[in-house]
Amino acid sequence: MAISDKTRKILWARSGNRCAECRRQLVEEATRSDAESVVGDECHIVSGHSLGPRYDATLPAARLDEPDNLILLCRVHHKMVDDQTQTYTVEALHKLKAIHEAWVASTLNPSGHPLEKLRIRRLKENIPAYLLRLTYGRDILNIIQNSYAHSFDHDEPASENEAQLLAEFLQEAQDFVDLYRVLEAGAHVKAAFRMSALLQQIEDSGFWVFGGREVQRLEGGIGAPEAWPVAILHIRRSTSPEIIKVKLGIPNTKPQSGG
Hints:
By secondary structure, the chain is of the alpha+beta class.
């Protein structure tokens, strides 16, 4: 399983864009030359992996990615709580989470008046007109990195084998959306290599993969509106009429999809 978009929104909203330990802001403002930077991680209190921090075999798998088992931390404290499990026990992290979320609710909304509901709004100027064809795993990781959510689509499979192939590819991509920010640099290289291999299998089966990014806006709740980057991946048959071929005959150009 993976953290759902709804759960991710709940966690960030209740945490007020702050680390539960040090309370630093977790989205740094854009500069004149660069976009915003996300410096926070959605961390599991109880790991779902047997060798992971605070693993508990008795916790049902369905609860691993629920809000109660997640805490929002800056990357420094994410590393600390996963390394120092004798200090940061399950009980300690649940207490830290409860104290922090109560602080967010009371400090950032001292009047106690109901807050505007959270919503994700699409911005017309940020909706990509076309999606570019992806041929390397690193192209996919460039789209996935620092995304908060994903938008995947695919043509209808014509056989069980095609269904399995598309399912495996999109599941791997979704896993990288969820895990990208916690993977080390070496793991990024391996992930790109793995995605390249899957892309080749996709193409050998008569499909092409197109992708792009769309920056939506998280509004409502506590604080100012924030960017909400979405990774877009669409799988189309190479014969699909949706594919628009542009600049044919010019080196290094790739077909585009109508999104």
